[in-house]
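hey can u run this one w/ alpha-L-arabinofuranose bound, need the structure tokens asap thx
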Amino acid sequence: MSKRYFVTALLAILVLSLRLAAQGPSLVIQVDHPTAKVSPMLYGLMTEEINFSYDGGLYAELVRDRAIGQDRRALTHWTMVARGNSMVNISVDSQTGPSTALPRSLKVSVTAATETSPAGVQNDGYWGIPVRPQTTYSGSFYAKTDSAGTPVTVSLVNDQTGATAASTTVTALTGEWKQYTFTLKTGQVPVRANNHLILTIPHPATVWFNLVSLFPPTYHNRIHGNRIDLMEKLAAMHPAFLRFPGGNYLEGDHISERFEWKKTIGPWVDRPTHPSPWRYHSSDGMGLLEFLEWCEDLKMEPVLAVYAGYSMRQEHVDPGPALEPYIQDALDEIEYVTGGTDTKWGAERARDGHPAPFKLTYVEIGNEDWFDRSGSYDGRYAQYYKEIKPRYPDLQLIATAPIKSMKPDVLDEHFYMSAEKSLSDANHYDKTDRNGPKIFVGEWATREGSPTPNLQSALGDAAWMTGMERNSDLIIMASYAPLFVNVNPGGMQWETDLIGYDALTSYGSPSYWAQVLFNRHLGTEVVASTLADAGPRVYTSVTRDEKARKLFIKVVNATSEVRPISITLDGAGKVKRAAMLYTLSGKTPNATNTIANPEALVPVEHKIETAGPKFEQRFEPYSINVMELSY
Ligand code: AHR
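ok here u go:
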């Protein structure tokens, strides 16, 4: 290029850049031009037993290892108590238990004890047993004794001070296995997590125990229900569905360790419990019916994952006759969820306390079957489809890996990303072929921050969500994973989890708040919008709710600078000047919430009085914003 042309080109570029700079970043929205429907089921929850999500988490049971099950050998959370000169020995007795499912027990042999120096056993809970003032705790245990008439005193005692917060005595045990219930009422005690539960006996005797249990008040006062603070946090997310029971927890490490739903229903004494792939044993207190009742409490639709013949240590069941019993199990499970009381499994559900069937639209066949190196998934999915679809034509059957032999109803895709990846890949679905299956993003997360995501992750998540929203004609559902983590040492098996807690309190991560903001302002249709000259790391999605005449503008500013954006609303007619801006932001991308500082970052509401067909709005550095306008 000659010098003259080079200078001319340089000048042209300069003039254009100056013009663009003068114009500044802009977002032009065609309010009257919807481009797609927003899936009303877009945001939901994914859950499994990981990070002490249920035991030691949502499921409000306070006693750890309550079931002395088949593979309970060590009594890690049970220790002996001997006051004064009393003497006691505790062990696992594999000769006697309260049921066929639980054929073992905790044997407490007291050889010396008095009323003032009793002896027995104690449980340390899930990193302590939380105690609150003026609270009633409901408890129970199965027991038998070699000395009829033996009483058992149950007390909540502080680990450090030895102060008793509440106590009661269950009288007259017999020689037969029987369940006993009791309540513990606290008075004006301080709120503390460092308590344990003690069961003591005032004279020499042997007592066998199993299923020792203690529950605090629960959400909606469900018997053996869920923790109130965690359910309230979930309710604030307005989730449309719950995908359960996994994840890897569905599959198990081995076929024999899969989630066998039939072993998770009915009285606890009929639930043998099972090892979870996340290196601890599940009580199965959160069984199939409890999952469904959790859905009921939060008005979510169940997305039921059924075991499909693959477990994580590369064990699989070949398609064909060998797979039939597993398919029958899935059919029975669907009947348990949806069947009338005139069906075998619907009647079983009624016996378990829930006569009304549950609404079910989505059934997922397996989990992450792309890991199955045998290549059997295509055949397995097709066989499940062939058996389920004719019986339940309205069910949508989700595949967990691409299928070549047929088009699945829905395909589940998972994304665990760095912040850089979720930001740079926020357009992931913009060009995806609309003739393929609908997509369920059944697991996704930006994984920066531990145990819970920091603001950097939340920015990545929010950018990623703008992409899912824009494409929600294709992406019918999406759920972040994992949902929960117990933040105590040893509580976490998977880093970067949405909501953290200990025995007493809980908090939402910045990513949690990003989801609350997005889902509360979902809208019903995507509208056309063009973002120009905003530079990299700025993301938007715009939806409207035509009935409510509301427009929702989401702007993610993942840069370190304020971004003023000129916003034009074309085709809106009259736009009200009063609008709302909800912002989650922080000073640095590393900013985060913790159990000690749970609300360092929470959304802030601003009233705006300057909205209109064309207006300017500034967006803070490192910020996730939702504007709600009326037109
Ligand atoms: O969310 C944690 C795990 O990640 C899930 O159990 C599994 O499906 C995925 O690999």
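The longest strand covers residues 26-37. anyway lmk if its weird
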